[in-house]
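Q: Given only this backbone (386 positions), what sequence would you predict?
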């Protein structure tokens, strides 16, 4: 009789499951923080009880991430297990100095999966991000993972970037990396205690804020919320979102829900000059009206569509122009579009792409279509007038 077994099995009571990792710098050393699940306290306990934390954060200093990880065994009674890693956070300081040397271990080590997301801590150390307690998701790293997916789906001002995709963007010619920023909103010290989760209104929260853009592997600056959305629209990464615009030809505002968005970036070379055409096709539903409009009339819908096209086109053009004139950094992948369109031109001019991008002729075409108007054919103010 032949019996099979799992020779490399890991018993749950012998391992410490790592769900989050933070990378900071102290002098020339790495300061590595890991968030570990405390399995005996993950399940919700009696309401009002001051239970111990569902996670533990260990911090260790080392010359490299690998060394710091091994030195963490001096603190943990169990073997650290990284196959459930959800989030890796680099501090803003680390990102400005360059993250390529730090990515090698994360991509090379066989114990790490590659489906976790990479974030940049803004105005604080990555260690502090991992030390903030959360309520609805008792494991903060899981909260960050789920919040990023939800925000990316519903708001479009954040981005889901895995370690594999990050390495690909850093190595790619004609494109640059952009990572979501995370901040601590409120009192940091209070957020590191369990009392933070025993209030109806939390005084300290983890919140996504802006997107960090890179030149190769170094952080250069931050996109605000509007620019982050523009980036995701151009990169064809928008699933849904909401936008507020002025009503056409009258006072008040209208809110529309984006239900579908398609982007096409076409590169071309004419008379030895590169050009790019960005085409955006966006479908929306009318979500809210503060002005008197009869949505049963075709010309009203056409007015709305024209207003949306003119307003958002300006936002897109302004965002592209700022990246060209202020930073000369191509985060939109226009260089890659030129590469696809004319490989020989790209091979000859890729080393001077920053200068060419700064004066690149970019044409933006915008097409909005109102798909649905909701349960009211007219606005509430108009019905009241009648």
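A: Predicted residues:
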């Amino acid at each position: 009789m032949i019996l099979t077994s799992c020779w490399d099995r890991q018993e749950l009571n012998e391992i410490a499951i790592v769900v989050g990792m933070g990378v900071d710098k102290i002098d020339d050393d790495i300061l590595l923080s890991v968030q570990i699940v405390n399995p005996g306290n993950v399940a919700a306990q009696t309401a009002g009880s001051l239970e111990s934390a569902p996670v533990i954060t260990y911090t260790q200093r080392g010359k490299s991430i690998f060394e710091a990880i091994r030195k963490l065994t001096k603190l943990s009674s169990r073997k650290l297990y990284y196959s459930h890693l959800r989030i890796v956070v680099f501090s803003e300081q680390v990102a400005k100095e360059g993250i390529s040397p730090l990515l090698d271990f994360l991509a090379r080590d066989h114990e790490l999966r590659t489906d976790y997301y990479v974030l940049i801590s803004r105005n604080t150390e990555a260690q502090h991000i991992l030390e903030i307690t959360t309520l609805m998701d008792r494991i903060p790293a899981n909260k960050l993972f789920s919040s990023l997916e939800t925000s990316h789906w519903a708001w479009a001002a954040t981005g889901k970037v895995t370690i594999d995709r990050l390495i690909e963007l850093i190595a790619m010619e004609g494109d640059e990396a952009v990572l979501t920023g995370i901040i601590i909103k409120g009192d940091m010290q209070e957020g590191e205690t369990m009392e933070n989760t025993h209030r109806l209104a939390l005084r300290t929260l983890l919140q996504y804020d802006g997107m960090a853009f890179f030149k190769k592997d170094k952080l250069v600056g931050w996109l605000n919320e509007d620019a982050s959305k523009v980036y995701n629209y151009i990169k064809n990464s928008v699933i849904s979102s909401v936008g507020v615009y002025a009503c056409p030809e009258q006072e008040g505002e209208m809110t529309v829900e984006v239900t579908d968005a398609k982007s096409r970036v076409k590169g071309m070379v004419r008379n030895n000059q590169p050009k790019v055409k960005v085409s955006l096709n966006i479908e929306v539903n009318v979500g809210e009206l503060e002005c008197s409009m009869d949505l049963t009339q075709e010309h009203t819908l056409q007015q709305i569509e024209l207003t949306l096209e003119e307003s958002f086109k300006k936002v897109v053009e302004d965002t592209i122009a700022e990246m060209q004139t202020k930073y000369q950094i191509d985060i939109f992948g226009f260089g890659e579009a030129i590469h696809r369109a004319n490989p020989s031109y790209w091979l000859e001019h890729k080393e001077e792409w920053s200068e060419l991008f700064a004066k690149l002729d970019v044409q933006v075409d915008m097409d909005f279509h109102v798909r649905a108007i909701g349960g009211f054919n007219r606005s509430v103010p108009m019905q009241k007038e009648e």
